[in-house]
Design goal:
By secondary structure, the chain is α/β, with parallel strands linked by helices. It contains 18 helices and 13 strands. It has a 9-stranded mixed β-sheet, sandwiched between helices. Strands 4-5 form a two-stranded antiparallel sheet.
């Protein structure tokens, strides 16, 4: 299959479910089944190879050393495929047996979907779904990691488009992800962390970025935490589908119970990329006031907005020597009065390196404009005491209800970050003191206006003239239409 054929084939599984469950729930069932089918097909492929090597020794071929994952015989895809009644029970049991057989790598990876609820998914629907996935082999010789990984990412994108408001929980606009990865520029051997990793796109793209540059990406240490069970499972499957096995993605609440610790304090990372949930109200503010990990570096955020709780968690988790972070936020984080004191301390400590304003509709199901906040624990000599402001609000392509960055947009923003210099109507380098004297506001439009002369407001006379011309054109069109209708 070509890449396009593979994607069409996988998306066909969603069509089997259409009308039976909500589009936002497709991912709970399709991703685990796809992963189940993949590991069974790969296991069979590895088994046959080991059989050839051992001249038909079945016991030798079953040794765990020959397999990425162990698939117990009673939990194989083919056994489930032969089941015609209580299919959901058979699927659930098989998945649990595979998890038990691979406790170090696959524990809990299939999530907690309600396979046994026949009111939700009948035996007939599940049989159709299994038969759909049974049409093609998904082993390594038929579908390489790169190809399947790309198709998996395609499915994540399609589910996001199809499910609307639930998309933001597990999907970050991939063109923004590419820009974020380029700016962070992770290097072989570095540790990369995403405290709210969703489906793992930011972490995954760091590895792919290195691979595309011809560098050793397998030595990258990837860490992620995600509060939603099915989303964290999708992130882990996403890594395996791309052939990446050295990672640690943990389910849990990052603010309440950070997962990655070292000597009773937060583990430190070289690179942090994040698209945290914005302006959440249901969080333990009281606990954060006396945070045992010292994350309230600059103060305690208001109950109605935990944005700076996440930002302080990020900062506290950075390596003191070469730590760098990039986080995607709504623009409000740059200028809200309720957070001014915390923002001031962040700037006074010379942690803010760059702020990039992005265009509207880059968040799923939201027209708000986004921004990238870039911090570093140890700025280069030429950047100390300075902040680069980039107004790239117009560097965006609108398509239906969602927007994205084209390659030309990504390159322009990235080059501006590297250059770290003034460019009329696009970027400006400010001293920290200048920002602090403006109530510590990082409001991009306050420092960099990209309203060109030809965007200026037209005069009243010009407006009236334009309206009159439009009226004449409309009147003529209507007359022609009536003539045709006579």
């Amino acid at each position: 299959m070509t890449q396009q054929q593979l994607e069409k084939y996988l998306w066909g599984a969603a069509k089997v479910l259409r009308g039976t469950i909500d589009a936002g729930d497709y991912k709970q069932y399709i991703f685990p089944l796809l992963f189940f089918k993949r590991i069974c097909d790969v296991y069979d492929e590895e088994f046959k190879k080991a059989l050839v090597e051992s001249n038909g020794d079945m016991e030798y071929a079953a040794f765990s050393e020959h397999h990425h994952f162990i698939v117990p015989q009673e939990a194989h895809w083919n056994i489930v495929r032969e089941t015609t009644t209580n299919v959901g029970v058979a699927i659930q049991n098989a998945m649990r047996e595979i998890e038990k057989a691979n406790p170090d790598t696959l524990h809990g990876i299939f999530g907690d979907a309600s396979w046994t609820n026949k009111d939700r998914l009948s035996d007939a629907t599940l049989i159709n779904l299994i038969e759909h996935f049974s049409q093609h082999k998904l082993n390594l010789s038929t579908v390489a990691d790169d190809k399947l990984g790309n198709a998996y990412e395609y499915l994540i994108k399609e589910f996001a488009d199809d499910s609307g408001h639930t998309a933001a929980e597990f999907y970050t606009n991939r063109t923004v992800v590419k820009l974020m990865t380029m700016i962070m520029d992770p290097q072989p051997g570095e540790s990369v962390y995403d405290p709210t990793c969703g489906s793992g796109g930011l972490l995954l793209n760091c590895a792919l970025h290195l691979r595309d540059e011809g560098k050793e990406y397998r030595t990258l240490k990837l860490y992620g935490q995600e509060i939603n069970l099915i989303t964290s499972a999708i992130a882990r499957m996403n890594m395996f589908m791309h052939g990446i096995e050295e990672f640690s993605i943990v389910r849990g609440d990052t603010l309440a119970q950070p997962a990655f610790l070292a000597n009773d304090t937060l583990k430190k990372f070289n690179v942090i990329l994040a698209n945290p949930p914005y302006s959440i109200k249901a969080w333990d503010r009281k606990g954060f006031e006396n945070d045992p990990y010292g994350r309230n570096l600059w103060g305690t955020p208001p109950q109605g907005c935990a944005d700076y709780a996440f930002q302080q968690h990020i900062q506290k988790s950075l390596n003191e020597e070469n730590g760098r972070s990039i986080s995607l936020w709504p623009h409000g984080i740059l200028f809200r009065d309720s957070e001014a004191a915390m923002r001031r301390k962040m700037i006074e400590e010379d942690l803010v390196e760059c702020v990039i304003g992005l265009g509207p509709n880059l968040f799923y199901n939201s027209p708000m404009e986004a921004c990238l906040l870039i911090t570093t624990t140890n700025k280069s000599k030429v950047r100390k005491g300075k902040i680069l402001i980039v107004n790239a609000v117009k560097e965006v392509k609108q398509k239906k209800s969602i927007a994205f960055l084209e390659i030309k947009h990504i390159n322009r923003i990235y080059k501006s970050y590297l250059a770290f210099e003034d460019k009329e109507g696009f970027s400006k380098v400010l001293d920290n003191e200048t920002v602090l004297s403006n109530k510590a506001s990082l409001n991009i439009a306050q420092y960099v206006s990209n309203v060109a002369q030809n965007d200026a407001t037209i005069s009243l006379d010009e407006a009236i003239s334009t309206w009159q011309e439009s009226s004449k054109t409309l009147k003529k069109s209507m007359s022609e239409l009536f003539e045709v209708l006579k």
